[in-house]
């Protein structure tokens, strides 16, 4: 399998490239980054998108503001794509649905490659109908490009789907705008950005006399690599041209 990485100079892109280079049955043939040169595992980072032409699969980790333009090019190349870039809201997913159409080649958007984080989201979905209200606190490093995180947004949507009538009965008045968090489909999200963090999330469910908390902590980016490899090896055979998340690959659907 011939694989390339876009956004190769970033932390996730670089780690992904190194992991792919060492993986059995995978040939890392190209790296792309619009603003950075250099090399990873003896493969040069090119500033020309054509360096990824000929890939069977492209792993996309470019910044949110350029990712859609990149995906149009990868689609023209006929490559399947695994998207790790954050910020894929309903509008962007709808645009991808139109772009990918009926295939051939597939696109898999992955809000989080951590298997633990995927399990956290699934558990939150199971808990949601049993509590009247939920909130999410997500904590990431201070270089993260967006807030809230894609994982927090995906979690909120999954909770809202199974528990659409979130109860918002509070006497608290915001003395400063945003103190009570942002709302995604009725679920409040609070974002923290600090140096020293990697990726962390708490999902809190409140009910009469109790609070249930689901917690997940990523302490090293190496935890993302098993999920990334699973996605790369599976995207070409997925049942639909566009899919979101690792759930089906882990038998969670």
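Q: What amino acid sequence fits the structure above?
A:
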């Amino acid at each position: 399998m011939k694989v390339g990485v876009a956004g190769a100079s970033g932390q996730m892109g670089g780690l992904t490239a190194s992991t792919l280079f060492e993986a059995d049955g995978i040939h890392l043939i190209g790296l792309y980054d619009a603003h950075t040169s250099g090399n990873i595992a003896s493969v040069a980072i090119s500033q020309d998108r054509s360096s990824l032409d000929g890939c069977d699969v492209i792993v996309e980790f470019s910044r949110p503001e350029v990712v859609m333009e990149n995906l149009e090019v990868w689609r023209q190349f006929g490559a399947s794509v695994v998207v790790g870039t954050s910020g894929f809201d309903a509008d962007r997913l709808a645009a991808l649905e139109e772009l990918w159409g009926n295939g051939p080649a597939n696109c898999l958007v992955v809000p989080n490659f951590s298997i633990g984080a995927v399990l956290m989201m699934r558990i939150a979905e199971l808990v949601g109908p049993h509590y009247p209200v939920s909130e999410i606190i997500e904590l990431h490093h201070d270089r993260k490009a967006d807030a809230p995180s894609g994982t927090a947004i995906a979690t909120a949507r999954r909770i809202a789907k199974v528990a659409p009538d979130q109860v918002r009965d509070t006497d608290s008045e915001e003395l400063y705008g945003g103190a009570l968090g942002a709302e995604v489909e009725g679920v409040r999200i609070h974002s923290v950005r600090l140096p020293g963090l990697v990726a962390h999330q708490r999902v809190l469910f409140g009910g009469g006399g109790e609070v249930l908390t689901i917690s997940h902590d990523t302490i090293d980016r190496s935890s993302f690599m098993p999920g990334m490899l699973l996605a790369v090896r599976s995207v070409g055979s997925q049942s639909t041209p566009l899919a979101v998340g690792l759930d089906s690959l882990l038998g969670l659907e």
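Q: And what stands out in the fold?
A: The two ends are 27 Å apart (CA to CA).
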